[in-house]
């Protein structure tokens, strides 16, 4: 666990950073209520709605986490000129997060969750096929060349909705490498993106196995050495952090296993967005000059704060400092 002094110094450095997030932005809509009766029309609960809340989701939640930890942030993604798009840009502007609108068609991605007594009853998704959000190849360099130069690090947030493509990842990686910027990715194996030569990837346990092409037998321990070695051979990513849920974070540099950081979560109410928090905090700490171990300890505290809240949430510097050294 990092000390309060280390966390304080790190947060001070983070406050001077600018981070660019590129990915699948979405609006998270929560309907809060209670259900005490069954509908006479069908065997389903009737929800009496008490209130509605909205927050940034997907790549926009990564940006929100970055801003909440004190850095300046710009997020690039598809914002339609619809009610969800306007609400999402309003939320981001309220946290001083700048936006880059990427070309596309269709609706702003909207996820509506119905919660009854703080338990999720169902989720309703409104989105278009990935082709609607794909950025034309010829526009990628013009969109992101100057933006990458103007920021200290780039985060690619993939929710498999269509913004990130092989060409976009390759182009942005090339610009980042040329400009000496840190670049990180939270990959989704089902998208099978071709990425290489990044500074950080943050798959969870299942995603790491899929990316590595490893299928362990049921009941056997996680094959950490094999997975880390294969991921480095395949993708040449400098740093790998595998989020292992209740088992914490497994660290690896250049294919070699490092430490496992125990989870900092005290109570778990909702894991929604915890991966976004980890990605944001890890990237910020690395961009601030921290070692991978210190960055992981910092991210672990931030994720521990978030899972103790209901719904997509963020961690503040005050909450980080309250848990540091404990």
From TrEMBL:
The keyword Transferase applies. The keyword Calcium does not apply. It comes from the Bacteria. It comes from Ereboglobus luteus. Residues 19-317 form the Carbohydrate kinase PfkB domain. Gene3D superfamilies: 3.40.1190.20. InterPro entries: Carboh/pur_kinase_PfkB_CS, PfkB_dom, RfaE_dom_I, Ribokinase-like. One of its GO terms (molecular function) is heptose-1-phosphate adenylyltransferase activity. One of its GO terms (cellular component) is cytosol. Keywords: Kinase, Transferase. It holds the Pfam family PfkB. This is Carbohydrate kinase PfkB domain-containing protein.
């Amino acid at each position: 666990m990092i000390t309060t002094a280390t966390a304080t110094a790190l947060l001070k450095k983070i406050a001077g950073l600018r981070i660019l997030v590129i990915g699948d932005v979405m609006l998270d809509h929560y309907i809060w209520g209670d259900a005490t009766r069954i509908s006479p029309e069908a065997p389903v609960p009737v929800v009496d709605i008490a209130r509605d809340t909205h927050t940034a989701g997907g790549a926009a939640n990564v940006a929100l986490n970055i801003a909440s930890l004190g850095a300046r942030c710009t997020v690039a993604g598809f914002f339609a000129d619809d009610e969800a798009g306007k609400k999402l840009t309003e939320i981001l502007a309220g946290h001083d997060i700048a936006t880059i609108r990427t070309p596309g068609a269709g609706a702003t991605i909207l996820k509506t969750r119905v919660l009854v007594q703080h338990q999720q009853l169902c989720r309703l998704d409104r989105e278009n096929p990935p082709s609607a959000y794909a950025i034309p190849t010829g526009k990628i360099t013009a969109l992101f060349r100057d933006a990458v130069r103007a920021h200290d690090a780039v985060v690619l947030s993939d929710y498999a909705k269509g913004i990130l493509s092989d060409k976009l990842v390759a182009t942005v990686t090339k610009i980042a490498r040329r400009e000496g910027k840190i670049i990180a990715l939270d990959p989704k194996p089902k998208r099978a993106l071709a990425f290489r030569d990044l500074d950080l990837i943050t798959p969870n346990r299942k995603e790491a196995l899929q990316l590595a092409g490893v299928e362990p037998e049921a009941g056997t321990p996680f094959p950490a050495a094999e997975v880390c070695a294969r991921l480095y051979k395949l993708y040449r990513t400098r740093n790998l952090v595998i989020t292992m849920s209740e088992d914490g974070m497994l660290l690896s540099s250049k294919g070699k296993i490092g430490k496992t950081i125990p989870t900092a979560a005290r109570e778990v109410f909702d894991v929604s967005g915890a991966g976004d928090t980890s990605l944001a905090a890890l990237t910020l700490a690395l961009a601030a000059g921290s070692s991978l171990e210190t960055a992981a300890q910092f991210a672990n505290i931030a994720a521990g704060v978030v899972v103790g809240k209901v719904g997509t949430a963020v961690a503040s510097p005050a909450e980080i400092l309250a848990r540091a050294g404990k």
